[in-house]
């Protein structure tokens, strides 16, 4: 159980960072916003290991060659858009809405690809999947919920400047994932 918890915290870190960045962009945060973000991140983090476990490694070679580039591209685009909007677009113009389903789908997918790989490893280790899925999803949900509120509190202190930081965080997470995959695997 301790190993599963450690894996869950490791997998949840990207979602936690992105949820902080998401909290920064929401001007009037409501509980429903935070719950939506946390449910998407926690749900994807729970679903992807299950999907990886079910695939049992048959897709691992195909996804391993491009997954890091896809993640990097998605996070670069969203982070770049956040930076652009905070610098160039006036306050009354539309900003990226991290509570929209389309944005959440991209962010959730981008932050949960590693969980897919974890699911592959669970299949290879012949581990049951129910407990890891519940723990990974639960830990990610809790950290993401907290992250949205942390981002909201920090964001209102610095207004648009913190949105730049949020964009940089997203790009940084994308670069981290890309470099890890290029150097390690």
What is the typical, i.e. mean, pLDDT? Answer: 81
How many strand units?
0
Q: From the alpha-carbon coordinates, what is the Rg to the nearest angstrom?
A: 16 Å
Report helical residue fraction.
over 70%
Distance between the termini: 27 Å
- The H/E string reads HHHHHHH
Question: Total helix count?
Answer: 7
| Total domain count | 1
The major β-sheet equals: none
Please state roughly what percent of the residues sit in beta strands, choosing from under 5%, 5-15%, 15-25%, 25-35%, 35-45% or over 45%.
under 5%
The shape is globular
Uncertain runs: none
Structural class: mainly alpha
Architecture blueprint of SSEs:
Blueprint: H1 2-25, H2 31-55, H3 60-64, H4 67-88, H5 101-124, H6 130-158, H7 160-184
Features:
83% helix, 0% strand
Structure characterization notes:
- The chain is mostly helical.
- It has one domain.
């Amino acid at each position: 159980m301790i190993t599963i918890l450690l894996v869950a915290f490791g997998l949840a870190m990207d979602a936690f960072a992105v949820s902080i960045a998401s909290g920064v962009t929401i001007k009037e945060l409501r509980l429903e916003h935070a719950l939506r973000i946390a449910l998407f991140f926690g749900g994807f983090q729970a679903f992807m290991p299950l999907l990886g476990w079910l695939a049992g490694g048959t897709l691992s070679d195909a996804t391993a060659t491009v997954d890091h580039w896809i993640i990097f591209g998605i996070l670069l685009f969203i982070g770049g858009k956040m930076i652009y909007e905070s610098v160039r677009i006036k306050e009354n113009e539309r900003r990226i809405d991290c509570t929209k389903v389309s944005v959440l789908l991209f962010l959730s997918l981008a932050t949960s690809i590693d969980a897919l790989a974890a699911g592959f490893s669970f299949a290879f280790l012949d581990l049951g999947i129910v407990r890891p899925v519940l723990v990974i999803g639960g830990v990610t949900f809790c950290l993401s919920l907290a992250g949205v509120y942390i981002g909201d509190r920090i964001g209102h202190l610095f207004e648009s400047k913190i949105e730049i930081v949020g964009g940089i965080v997203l790009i940084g997470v994308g670069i981290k994932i890309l470099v890890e995959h290029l150097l390690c695997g």
